[in-house]
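Researcher: Next entry in the queue.
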Amino acid sequence: MERMQPHDTEDEQQSHNIPPNGVVRDQRLITQCALEVIQDIQRQRGRAMQPRDRMALKLLTPRNAALMVKGARRHLGCRQVSFDILTDDPGLGAYRLVPVGLHVRNPETGWWSDDYGIGRFLWNLYLGEPPEDGMQRILERLFGLPAKELGPACTQLAVRRQEHDIQAVVRPDLALYIRRHKGSIETSLRRLHRAQGLHRAADLGLDTGGQGRMALVFGKSRRYAITFSVERA
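Model: Structure for this entry, 233 residues:
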């Protein structure tokens, strides 16, 4: 967890003087706040948060989270979209991709992993970003395809009009707010392979403990991978 925190610059060190009121846009303070949430919830409950929630909080940035300071109280909020990836290939049938791990490539230590949790894919939306636009952005990153190739004729996007709010007073001085939307993506395994986003986990050097033999590699630097299992839909 510590290696995901950025190093301080002089500007960042100066910005650590938190204003008494207002929105904080400093990456280090957002990361610090998110890690406090993770640690405090584990301490209070006696067990860790769900792995995918833990990872989603670790990946918060000023683009997809808001840290509001009101006097001695901090309010950390974000929006997320959880979704299924469903595939249907002629001759192969319909399958559901179930995420089992998220991996970040550190050049010095190799792949680092945080259990993602069996279930749905989870992604942070940008501030002010409609869920449909967020899903399109996610597709582009996951599949490595430009927006023009992600039209309804090829890939179906469905964002269900369901919102699930999560609110928690973690400490008297720290509150958490999450709004989660639900959606689904329909594509094909052949399409993922053609986009060069689909890989065998073993070929990437990922140790999944027998789970998640396949992986989607994404990000501008291709440093991130989600391993998943394939189940009959």
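Model: Helices lie at 10-15, 27-45, 51-58, 131-143, 189-194.
Researcher: Noted, moving on.
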